[in-house]
Design brief:
Elements: E1 10-17, H1 21-32, E2 37-40, E3 51-55, H2 56-64, H3 68-71, E4 76-78, E5 80-85, E6 96-99, E7 109-113, H4 114-127, E8 131-134, E9 138-142, E10 148-152, E11 157-165, H5 172-176, E12 182-197, E13 204-210, E14 213-220, E15 229-237, H6 238-246, H7 249-259, E16 267-282, E17 287-288, E18 291-293, E19 299-300, H8 308-328, H9 336-365, H10 369-384, H11 386-397
Parallel strand pairs: 1-2, 1-11, 2-8, 5-13, 11-18
Antiparallel strand pairs: 3-7, 4-7, 5-6, 9-10, 10-11, 12-15, 12-16, 13-14, 14-15, 16-19, 17-18
The chain binds flavin-adenine dinucleotide.
Flavin-adenine dinucleotide binds next to helix 1, strand 3, strand 12 and helix 8.
Length: 414
Amino acid sequence: MTLPAEPADRVCDVLVAGAGLAGLAAAIAFARAGFDVLACGPDERFARGRTVAMLDRSIAYLDSLGLWAAIEPEAAPMRALRMIDDTGALFPPRPVEFLCSEIGLETFGWNVENDRMADTVAAGAASATGVERTPAPVTAYDFSGEIARVRLGDGRSVAAALVVGADGRASPARRAAGLAMRAHRYPQSALTALLSHRLPHRDFSTEFHTREGPFTLVPLPPGAETPDRSSLVWVMSDGEARRREAIDDAALVREIERQARSILGAMRLEGRRGVFPMIRQTVPKLTAPRLALIGDAAHAFPPIGAQGLNLGLRDVEAIVAAAVAARAEGRDIGGGVALASYERDRRADIVMRTSVVDGLNRALLTHFAPLDFARGAGLAALGAVGPLRRFVMREGVAPRFARPLPGRPGGAML
Ligand SMILES: Cc1cc2nc3c(=O)[nH]c(=O)nc-3n(C[C@H](O)[C@H](O)[C@H](O)COP(=O)(O)OP(=O)(O)OC[C@H]3O[C@@H](n4cnc5c(N)ncnc54)[C@H](O)[C@@H]3O)c2cc1C
């Protein structure tokens, strides 16, 4: 759609479309780098048992944005990861444990309720110098001219050198720019819940690999009256998800305790449960003239291995770095050179994470004996071979493809 020509009600360097976690982090990061930012879109809260596990590298980045100190009191550290095969496979491997101390870290990362993190990041964006925040959504884009032109839901027209599309899986910005997207719907959904339990989690994240998908318990910090708490992400068939969405709390808790083999003792549900369909989305191109996609607008996959937002935060780092470099070289921050640099920077990391998550999920679903053997052998090797286990742990928390953070070594060198 073509918007009216000059004048615009607002001119800015960067318009961030979408105020989810990736969009707000991007708004803050661009403003800290000295850009004039307009961040638009409604505040989102999930309140359906959803948490987000952020890995070591994301914590360092949030810290560099001045956000971590306010998130940390709401988060719980993950110092160990336990994987238990529960597939009934022909060649069942023994449980494998990964300790963060093996790779010299104090923690693999931290787990926090989505809504608590969203509150903190929204407060950070509201008080950041250089960010104008409006709940109005973008209702129209025009990428055809010398500069990007946007219409907001409050009627204002905006001109921006760069639009950052952080507007989620459906991404209206992506569609307006004519960028392709490929989607695959898995026959699975993830049930999420917050739980209090009788036994302590000891900072262990525990993952049971079942035939329908992983069942993962992740530590949460103590509540006012309940010292021992965890979040659950339980991937299962769509049919089971529909059934478990409908049963009462007591029946659901019984099924959760049974699947958890009571390792955390008696449990109680806190608040509402959530059910999220499992989808993979890939985008052959992350950029179009004056547009860069980040976060779920750029990639989406099942919640396995805590990757989605962690990847989204690496997108933020990369697009801000590309804009800063363009400015230093006297180039246009929304021009072809800056956008090509962002595209190059992100491609390998996104492709690799998407494939690994897809492969892990498919390996669990298969009943094909040779593949089952390969999966079992892989887990067994992880348990037995220290260097392999340490490599996998490092790749998980600090991938090779990520750019080095200031003052820290690059991913593979940790
Ligand atoms: C069950 C589950 C568990 C997960 N666990 C983890 C985990 O442990 N670790 C991890 O790293 N990731 C995890 N993820 C993934 C992670 O939650 C997402 O990757 C992340 O929240 C995506 O953030 P986003 O800001 O890119 O997108 P979104 O949160 O989807 O935000 C997009 C925003 O854009 C807005 N918007 C849409 N259209 C417009 C418009 N026209 N104008 C303005 N705004 C617009 C929407 O309203 C929305 O607020 C999990 C996901 C699920 C489903």
